## 1
Amino acid sequence: MNNVNPKSLIVIFGATGDLAKRKLFPSIYRLYQKGKLSEEFAVVGVARRPLSNDEFRRYVSQSVEDSTKQELSDPSFVSRFYYHSLDVTSAASYQELKTLLERLEETYRIPGNRIFYLAMAPEFFGTITSHLKSEGLTATNGWKRLVIEKPFGHDVKSAQQLNKEIRQSFSEKEIFRIDHYLGKEMVQNIEVIRFANAIFEPLWNNRFIANIQITSSETLGVEDRGRYYDHSGALRDMVQNHMLQMVALLAMEPPIKLTTDDIRNEKVKVLRALRPITHDEVDQYFVRGQYGRGFIRGQEVVGYREENSVDPQSNTETFVAGKLMIDNFRWAGVPFYIRTGKRMTEKSTKIVVQFKDVPMNLYYRTSEHVHPNLLVIHIQPDEGITLHLNAKKSGESMKTTPIKLDYCNNCIDGINTPEAYEKLLYDCMRGDATNFTHWDEVAASWSFVDPISEVWANTKAADFPNYEAGSMGPKKADELLQKDGFHWWPLNGTM
Ligand code: NAP
C-alpha cells in the first residue's frame, strides 16, 4: 500500500455507460493531471457496442471536456485508452480481452496489476467475476482488485448470494465495494473532527448529546432512472448504504489505529448495535413518503407516479425518515434521526449534532430561551462545519443571542476538493480499502433494513403521494421528532 504512483491496468466494464462518462473518465483525468498516475498505466473500456479505439478515445475526451468545461490540453492522456467490445455473458470473448490485457501490460511495463471496475448493472457482477476467473484473467503475476458499484443485493439474502459468487474469484481483501459518500471530503472529516479535537470527544456521548440528525435531500426527481428506482426506493438506494455509513462514522468508538481493519471493526460494531426494528414497530420508527406534483425553484414538476418508467400505481418510497437507536453504553437513549428524499426543497447533505441544554437557564428573565449548542457538519454542496453557541447581545444587559463559528472548506481560494470518485479510484490503486464497505458492514446494514422494506413492500401506502415536490417531506416525518420533544433543524439560511 501507499506507493505513490501505482502501476496498474484499469479495466472498466460498462465503459459506454453513464457512470463511466460522468465520473470515472474525468476522475482518471484529474489523477493524471495531478501526476498521481505513473507512466505505467492504461485503461481498457469494455461494453457491447462496437467502437474503434479512436472512437472510444474521442468519447473519453468528450466526457473529460464536459466535466472540466475546457478543451483537453494533453491529448497523450487518451492515447492510453483502449476499447474492447464484448458481451459479458459470453465466456468465449474473454479470451481476446485477456490477450489485449497481456499486450498492454507489456507495452506499458505494468507488472500484472489489474483493477476490474464493474460499472454495470449488478445482475452481471456474478457472471463477470466467474468468467474472469474461468478464462484466466484473474491469474496474474501482480495484484488484482475488483471494484463494484451499488446496489450490493436488494436484501440480506441476495447480498449473501452475490457475495458468495464473487468470492469464488476474489478474496474479501481484493473486493472494493464503492459507497461514494465515503469518498466525500467532509464524510472523511467526521473522524478528524471527532478524534483530533479535545473539545468534542469528551462530549460525544449520551450525557451531553440530545440527538443527532442526518439529512440528505435532493431536488432532482428520478430523472431517467425510473426503471431501477421503482424497484429500489429510497430505503435501499440511500439508507442501507450512505445514511448508515454516516451513522457508523458518527457513532463508532475511536479506533486503536487509523488502519483499515481497525476502523472497519469499529464501524461494524455500531451497525450491530443498532436496535433491530420488528415488523410491528416499523411505523413507530420509520416514515415513508412519495412526492406528488409541486414546484422546484418556481418550475412546476410532475409527481413520482407520472415519471417515465414508473408504475402509475407505484408503492415505492422516494422519501424516508427514521429514528435509530444504538444500544450501547455511549449512545443509549440518544436518537439518531435520518431523513433522505427526492424532490425536496434543496439539495443538501448535513449532519446536526444537538447538544443537551445547560442544566439551568440563568437568562430566562431576559432572553426567550437559550438556544441549544449545535455542531453542524456540512457534507454537500457546502463543505465545512458550523458551531452554534450563545453569546451576550451587544449593549443589552445580559440578553443572549445565538452566534455561529463557521469554517467553510470549499470557500478557501485554491482549494478544489477532489471528487469522491477520484479519491476512491486512487485509494483502490494504492490498495487502501478504508473508504470502501466491508462485507460485514453490508450484511449488518441489510439485516437492519430488511424488516422495514418487507413491511413496506407488503402494505400499500394509502396516503401516497404524501408530500409535495419542493417540500421537506411528509408531515409524519416532523411528528417523528415532535413525539420526542425535538424538531428538524432547518437546512438553509440559519444553519
Ligand atoms: P448504464 O448507463 O445503464 O450503463 C451500462 C453499461 O453496461 C453500458 O456501458 C452498456 O453498454 C454496458 N452493458 C450492458 N449490458 C452489457 C453486456 N451484456 N455486456 C457488456 N456490456 C454491457 O449504467 P450506469 O448508470 O453507468 O450504472 C452502472 C452501475 O453503477 C450500476 O450498478 C449503477 O447502479 C451504479 N451507479 C451508477 C451511478 C450513476 O451516477 N450513473 C451512481 C451510483 C451507482 P452497451 O449497451 O454498449 O453494452
Note: The two ends are 40 Å apart (CA to CA).
## 2
Amino acid sequence: MKRIEIKNLLERRDYNAQINVKGWVRTKRGSKNVAFIALNDGSTINNIQIVVDRNDNNADLLENINTGASLSVDGILVESTGTGQAVEVNATNIEILGKAHPDEYPIQPKKHTLEFLREKAHLRFRTNTFAAITRIRHSMIFAIHKFFNDRGFYNIHSPIITGSDAEGAGEMFQVTTLDLDNIPRTEEGEINYKKDFFGKIANLTVSGQLEAELAALALSKVYTFGPTFRAENSNTSRHLAEFWMIEPEVAFNDIHDNMDLAEDMLKFVIQYALDNCMDDLLFLSNRLQEEEKNKKADERSMELIEKLKFVLENPFERVSYTEAIDILRNSKPNKKKKFDYIIEGWGADLQSEHERYLVEKHFKKPVILTDYPKEIKAFYMKQNDDGKTVRAMDVLFPQIGEIIGGSQREENYEKLSKRMAEMEIPEESMWWFLETRKFGTVPHAGYGLGFERLMLFVTGMGNIRDVIAFPRTPLNLEF
Ligand code: 4AD
Ligand code: MG
C-alpha cells in the first residue's frame, strides 16, 4: 500500500479507508487492552494516533515499540473518540522498521534542555521544537526567493572561496592545500603561496556583496543567498562562524530605496510565516511562554504571534546615528552606568545592548539607523558630503539588535580608491571591484540580512545555535 503522509492523513474524513502510514514513535501509552501510539513523520507538528488492540500475538511486538522506533503501520482510518484529534488509525498490521532501545535512545518524551539537545544534534530533528524550526526555516528560504523573484530580481551564486576580504575586517578562514607540516618557503623565509592550490592566499568568503555589485551593474536587480564565514571569536547567542546571508544589490537605488526594500522584504517574509507556518508558530509560542513562566511580567517576551504582527503593523523608525547617540547618551541605563559599554559620545560603535535599547525601550518598534561614522563602517560605503559619515543603514530588531547591515555604495572611482588606500585595502586583490567604477558606474545600494538572525526573530528562540541544524562556533565542530 502506498504511504500517506501524516499531514494529509489528518485532513482526511473518508472513514474505513485502508491506509499505510510510516514514521517515528513519539509516545506509547495505554491500558491492558489497547495501546495508543503517537506517530510523527515530520510532515506536520501533529501526530497521528495509532490504536492497537492487545492480544496474545502482539505482546512481543508492542514491547519493542518504544519512543524513537520507526514503524510502518497498515490500518483503517476512523473517527477519533478521544479528544485532541479528529481521526486516528486502527492498526491491522505493524512492522517495526527500526527499534530504539529505551535505555539508550536519548530523546525521551520529557523536557530536555536546549543545551542537552545541542549535544545530540544528530537526533534533535526528532523533537517537536527542532522539527518546527526546520519547517519554518524552509518556509523562510522559500519566502525570500519568492519575494525577490516576484520583483524581478536574479539570484546569483557568489563564490565561496575568495581571494579578497569583502568587509576588510580580516576575519577570514584560510583555505589551503599546503602541507602544514612542511610549508614551502621563499628565499626570504616567507610562506610561498605560489605553491598553494590557487597560487595565492585563499579564504572562505565573509560576504557575497562585491560579486553581487558586479552583477547588479549589468542586471540591475540581483541577490545572493549563500553561506558566509567569519572567524570572529565571539561566543554570543547571535554569532555563528558559518551563517547564511541574503544580499540584494540594486543599480540606481539610493539609501531610501534600500531601506524601503529591506522593510518590504522583512514584512513579506514575516507575513509568509504567519500565513504558512501557524501550527509550528503556535507550538513555539507555547514553548516560549512555558519557558518564561517563572520570569517577572516585565521580563517576559511579547507573545510570538503578537510580536510578528506588531512588526507588520508598524512602519520602521528611520533615525540617523547622530540622533541615536544623543538618545543613548541621555538614556537612563547610560547615566546609571547600566550598559556594559557606556556611550561617551559621537563615534562610539553600537553594541547590541544599545541597539536593543533603541528598539525595545525608546522607539518600541524596529529602527533603521543611517549615516554612521565612516571609521566604524566598511570601505565601500558611499561617503556623505560632511566628510565624517557614510550612507550606511542598519536595521535593528527587538530581541536581536542588528538583523540587516547595508548601505548605498561609493560609486565614485577617486573617492573609493582613496578610501581603500586610507583603510589599507590592497588594490591588487580588489582591482576588479574598482574597475566597475571606471566603466559605466551608477549609484547603487544593497544590504545583507543574516538569515539565522531572522530565524531567531521568527521562531522566538534565544540562541542562534538552535536555529541552524549544525551550528559552527568556536571549538564546536562535532556534527
Ligand atoms: O553587517 P554585515 O557584516 O554586512 C555585510 O556583510 C555586507 N556585505 C552586507 C551587504 O551590504 N551586502 O553582515 C550582514 C548581516 C548582519 O546584519 C547580521 O544579521 C548577519 O549578517 N551577521 C551574522 N549572523 C550570524 N553570525 C555572525 N557572525 C554574523 N555576522 C553578521
Ligand atoms: Mg553590520
Note: The radius of gyration is 27 Å.
## 3
Amino acid sequence: MSFDSLGLKAELLSAVQAQGYTTPTPVQAKTIPVILEGRDVLAGAQTGTGKTAAFTLPMLQLLSAGEQGGARGRAPRALVLTPTRELAAQVADSVRTYGKNLRLHSAVVFGGVGINPQIDQLRRGIDILVATPGRLLDHAGQGTVNLSKVEILVLDEADRMLDMGFIHDIKRILRLLPAKRQNLLFSATYNDEIKRLADGLLQNPEMVEVARRNTAAETVSQVVHPVGQTKKRELLAHLIKEGDWQQALVFTRTKHGANRLATQLLKDGINSTAIHGNKSQAARTKALADFKKGAVRILVATDIAARGLDIDSLPHVVNFDLPNVPEDYVHRIGRTGRAGASGMALSLVASEERDLLRNIQKLLGRNIEVQEIPGFKNEPSFSTDSAPSFRQDRKPQGQGRKPGFASARPARRFEKKDRNYQR
Ligand code: AMP
C-alpha cells in the first residue's frame, strides 16, 4: 500500500513525501479514500496512529477543489475542533505542513492568549479554522467568525472533548453550522456518549477502527511456555489438541519455518496451512479464505505475510518463534482479543530466545506470566525477569509524550519510515 493509491493529488503527495512518510498508516489507508468521496466518517483512532494526516490530507484536497488564494473576509470552509490548545496547535501545524503546496489559508484559535491577533487573522480570510470550542464560541459571540460556510467539520479527540465537558459548547457550535456538510468524528474510545454524539451528527458514516497501539498488550491474556526448540512442534500440537482449539494463527520467523511447521502439523492430524511472501497471491488468498471459513484450523504465517491479513478476531495467537523486533510481538497478539472478545496469546520460548523475550517485556513494561507444561519443560534456569530494569531505562522513551495517553506503557509514536507501518 502506498500513498499514491489513495487518490491524493500531487501537491499533497509531495508534501507527504517531504515528511519522509513512505506508507500510509492503517487509519490513513482506510479513511482517506472515504473522506475524498465526501462521506461522513466515525474513526476510532488514538494519538500516534497518524490520525491527523488521515483527516487533514483529504480535507485539504476537497477544499483545494474550490476557489484558492486569499480573499479578504472569506469564511472558513473547514472547521476542526480539538479539546486542547496543544492539540489545536499541532493540528494547525499539520494543516500548514501538508498544505504547503496549496494556496489555502488557515488559522488557529484557542483560549488563554490574546483574542485580537486571532480576530485579525480571521478578518484576513481563511479556508480552514482549527479551534477549541470555548474560544470559538467567544469569536462567534463577538461576530468575528462566520461559520455559515463550513463544508467540513472535524471533531478530533471527540471523547476527550466530552470528558472535558464540552458537549454543550459543541452543540452550540453545531447550531451555527450549515445543515449540509461533511462530518468527521475521531475518537480514541467508543462509548454510549460518543455513540449519541455520532448518531446526532453523522449521516450514514463509514466506521473505521484501527487497533489501538499496545492495547492488545493490555487486554489479551499472555503466557510464555518455556520449551526446548526441538520440542516446540510437539508442544503446539499438544496445546491445540488438549485445549480443543478451534482456530489459531501461529507465527514463525521464517518462511521455511512456516512451511515446515504447517507440514508437520498436518502429519499430526491438524489441518494447517502456511501463508508467506513466497506464495503466489492466489495461494495466499485461498489459504486465507479457507482459514476464514473454518476449513483450515491453523494458519502459520510470517510477520510480513500476516500484516495484510484481514482477520477480525481469533481466540488464539501463538508465537512459535519470538519476533526479532519487539513491536512485532504487539502486532501479532493484536490479532486476538479484538472488540472485547477474549483472546489468548501464547509464546513458545526456547532458552536461546530469552533476550528477545526480555526486549518484548521491556516494551510492554511488565513480565509475561510463565507456565511450564509438564513434559515440555525447559532447563530450570529459565528466567524472564526483565521489567524492573525497564522501569529505570524507560525515561527517555517517555519524554515528549502528550498527556492523554492513558497507559503507563511506552506508547511508541510512528517514526518516519517506521518499518512496522510498511504494509
Ligand atoms: P498523530 O496520530 O496524527 O498524532 O500522528 C502521529 C505521528 O505520526 C506524527 O508525528 C506524524 O508526523 C507521524 N505520521 C503520520 N503519518 C505517518 C506515516 N504515514 N508514516 C510515518 N509517520 C507518520
Note: Residues 264 and 380 are 28 Å apart (CA to CA).
